[in-house]
Amino acid sequence: DAGVIQSPRHEVTEMGQEVTLRCKPISGHNSLFWYRQTMMRGLELLIYFNNNVPIDDSGMPEDRFSAKMPNASFSTLKIQPSEPRDSAVYFCASSIGGAFTDTQYFGPGTRLTVL
Amino acid sequence: GQQVMQIPQYQHVQEGEDFTTYCNSSTTLSNIQWYKQRPGGHPVFLIQLVKSGEVKKQKRLTFQFGEAKKNSSLHITATQTTDVGTYFCAAPQGGSEKLVFGKGTKLTVNP
Fold it and tell me: How many other CB atoms sit within 10 Å of the CB of residue B99?
């Protein structure tokens, strides 16, 4: 299995631009998670999908952030407009089941820099 | 909000020395997971503890879950340079039981 795939691996953009991060979960996994990692705040859960349905988006910072999962093999996290404080590493993870007791498999992450 | 406290934040050891990181919660946990993140890498699942007082071993790594299920520890015996990285504990918390990660302990090993 290829594992969780994320693209792009690195993104540098200017403040105000739209940024779209992409994730392909492990085939057969029913849950998908978007995390953000910064030095100050650590690893934070942004949103969680189960069977393509958003279950918990309480970690999404503000309306500038949106996430979709149109099918079981693809999800996007969009930031519009981006701001310098959005600079972070964004991880996508997937798990087999819908419970947080299941092992989460993380993708390699997207390092986002907003200038 | 509820959180999982992890200490120490940093630990530097000489190769061959032991290392321990601790994770504490003010509330009882249903389970606790441990992850390792190598420099520049992504978190990788190590283990999950579920039972009160549970102890699990993976080679030189020993994981413990407290009797009250409010704390946990990861102990590495005789560290090697390959152990370098940040070790995170994570536990489901809050009404939605979503996974909350500790801030991690960054381990550096001097060869």
Answer: 25
